Structures are given as structure tokens and as C-alpha cells.
Amino acid sequence: MQPFASTRRRPPKVLLAAAAVVLVPAAAAAADPPPAVAVDLGSVKIELVLVKAGRFRQGSPPQEAGRGDDEALRDVTLSRDVYMGKYPVTVGQFARFVEETGYRTEAEVGASGGFGFDGKGLSQRKEFTWRTPGFPQTDQHPVTLVTFKDAGEFTRWLTQRTGRAFDLPTEAQWEHAYRAGTQTRFYAGDADSAAALLGWFKGNAGSGTRPVGQKQPNAFGLHDMGGNVYEWCRDFYGPYAPGPAVDPEQTSAPAGDKPRRVLRGGSWLKDAKHLRAAARYRNDPGSRNADNGFRVVAALEASAPSAAAPAPGAPGPTGATRPATSSFWSTVSAGTIAALVGGGLFVGSVVVGLVGALASRGARRKVGGARRKLVAGAPPGVTFRPQGDGFWLKAPPHLYGATLHYRCFVNGVMRRGSVPIERSRRGQFVYTGGAPSSVEMEQLGSAAWAAAPGAGRGAAAPVAASRGRRSGRGGGGGGGHRARNRISSAPDVDVVAPFRGYPSAY
């Protein structure tokens, strides 16, 4: 669902004419919108705060403490006012959505669960979902363990239920709202101590989230913009385009990079520097972690809601791209958008569902004949076994702790990822978002292979390590060893260039 997005094609003249008729009175009514509104969802409400259009300086200066190298400065103009959630979406609000629609999150549908808190850090278990993140929560805590798609389905439900167009914020909208006219490291100041005034992070949160609204709000009246949970944004992660920008949104992944969505704000699990206004983060859109949540933005106007808000459809491919934004959004009423979502997308989802079902069926057939495979010349003892929505990885003890970079094909689409090899006699399950028809190793980030038993005659030695630069926003180092041969769960797949993206976020 994408109420803020439309295609770049010029809308039909008839539709534009109709929109103009609708917007004449609407524009007058929206001339002086109230500074805050509350959306009643029955047993709970969502409070929204007005964020006015304007110009701001995105990114951080080179001398800023804790700065990342992806925070290039640029002037950004946002051309329209929006409402933004006063708080991150809470457990109680998400529970209302689930109660009304019967929706199941990707962590609940998948065979492997999500990444919850095990007392020491995040680990993946079947029982970890938004209901049970590994620490106690009430209805006033921010919801966690939700994927990019889960967040999108929530905003789709809000649009259909209320008649007001809801979505996730763009990265520029989010930073503009966070700064609220400031240009300091944190909206509460430049000093490290300012982080404790505005949010919960590793140094003060303890082992989990805290109820929303307990820290100092910014000048717009927004709480928890820094800390507590990371918040999904609409943009794909990538470098900022140079020069000034108007309503920017990264609508596709940069060429050659793994498609990931932006997360902003820092979390209870991260250091204070991640709570800075310019700090950027990113993760696979299918990630379900106990410090990832979201916040909504909404259109100023609302029309009559849909007669009934249908339950969201079956989960589709994670990280499906959104069409690029355009000025057409600002000329169509929220009711028109809701009608389009309720009608056109339903037909599209049926077609996509049928195609996906056929592709998954073919993938399962292929996986059945590729249960376990070793390729000559690969590290001895490493096996892949595709199953359900991912694959089982098993490796000998001398490879524990190494980072495995892999690629797989899910419904005919290639996906890349990396995972640290865990100490496990049974093996570890790696989630891929669907049934993989093949899994291949592209790179092994460890020197252990070279010294491993059996790595001499009959086993290809790794290429010399390329140390590279270590990313401060991920786990694992930038260096590693590339395999001359591949491990694969399916034969006859061409070798591709090694994965050169950032390491996994966790």
C-alpha cells in the first residue's frame, strides 16, 4: 500500500479535472489546519502532530562527533504539510489492527520467527514475534519485530478505515520532523548528555523498550524521535543525490547494491550517537528485530472512510518497490486514494498471488531435489539445506564466527545477504523471505578456511583478504576471503561477482 506514492505518468485529464473540483473547497479548509488531531480506532487513538512544509539542511557537517560517511550535507525543500504520529506506533495500536483484520506478521508466518532479546543480545527464535519480543511490554510500548511490509499493511488499513491517506515517512520528512528547526547533533543540543534528555538508548534503557512519551519532545511536539526503536522510512538506502532537492525519495536500490530500506532514530539497543538527527541506518525490508518499529505520516484532509476495511492480503515479496512520488498525490483527495487502494490493488494482488504461488510451487519442486549439496573446492563440511522460507546452514567448528556472504533465488529473484556462522551442532536457520530455489556462497569473511583441516590438496585456497573499511553501522569487518569456487544447493548456476555491500545490520 502506498497512499503517498503514484506513478510518474501524467494522470488522465478527466481525473485531474475531477480532482480540481474536489480540491477547491478542500484547499480552503486546509488553509489553517489544526496543529494536532487524533484518529479514533475504536479502543485506541493515534495522535497526529502537524509538520509544516519548509526547507532544512539534511545531513551533518564533517566535524560532527559520531558522524557517518553517508551523511553528506544538502539543502532539502519539502513542499507540503503533513501530519506525523506523535509517538511511534504502539503495541496497543498494532493489536487493534490485528484484531480487526486478522493480519499475521512476517515473523509469525515464517518458520523461523524473529530476532528477539535473549538476555544478552538479539537471536532468532520461532517464539519471538511482536507479541513476545523477549522483554515485557504493555500497550503503551512501541511495537517491535515488524518488517517494512508489516508497517505498510498497517498504514494501508489506517487509510481504508479512516479515509485519510497514511504512509511511512520519507527519510527527508523524518529528518525534517526530527530537527524541528534545529541544526544541532540532537534536537536537545550538541552535547552527548542531550541524548539522555530525548530518548532511550543502550546507556539508559536497560534490556528492552520503554513506554512512549516519557522523554523530552521536540519543538513540533514529537516524542521518541531519537531512541526506543528504529523507525522504518519509505526510502531505499543509498547515497544522497548531490545538490539541492525537492521532496526527495530514493525509490530504488542503487545499482549493484542489496535492496535495503532506511531506518532512522536509533534504539534501546544502540549507542547514543545513533540518536543524532543525521544518523542513518538500513536493513533488509524483511528484517524483524526487537528494536525496529515505525511511525506514520498522514494527509491533512480526510474523506469518508471505506465501508469496511478488508483484511490485508497474503504476504507478498518483502521489499517490493514503491512507485516514485509526484505532485499528483497533492491533487487527489484521500477518498480517491482509498478507493483506488481498495479496488485496483485488490485485482493486482490476486494476479501477483497467482504468479507467486506458481513460482513457489516450482521452487519447492527444485528444492526437493537439492536437499544437501557440497561442491568440490569449497570449504569442507559446509552444507545448505533449503526449507520453507529459508535454508539451514551447517558448518564445521573451525568456521564458527566467520561471516558467510551468500546469494539465493526466491521466486526467480536473486537476493544477497550475509550471516555470521553460529556455534550449533544442529545448524542454523537463515531466513530468506520465501522458498529459495538455490543458495550459493559468494564470500567467506574469515581466515579460518586457509588453515582449516583439508584445505590443502583438493580444496581451493581463498583469495587474499581485502581489508576494506569497517562499517560503524553493521556487524563484522569489511575484510574477508573470496571463494574461487562456490557452495551451492543447486547445480549449474553461474558464478557472480562477490557481494560488496555493507555487512549485515545485526
Would you give an account of this structure?
With about 500 residues, this protein is of the alpha+beta class. It folds into 2 domains: about 50-310, paralog of FGE (formylglycine-generating enzyme) (Alpha-Beta Complex); about 385-480, no CATH class. It is about 20% helix and about 20% strand. It is built from 8 helices and 21 strands. The protein has helices at about 15-30, 90-100, 105-110, 150-160, 170-180, 195-200, 335-370, 450, and strands at about 35-40, 45-50, 55-60, 75-80, 80-85, 115, 120-125, 165, 230-235, 245, 260-265, 280-285, 290-295, 295-300, 385, 390-395, 405-410, 415-420, 430, 435-445, 480. The strands form 6 sheets. The chain has a 5-stranded antiparallel sheet. A 4-stranded mixed sheet has the order 12-11-9-13, with helices on one face. The longest helix is centred in the last third of the chain and has 35 residues, at about 335-370.
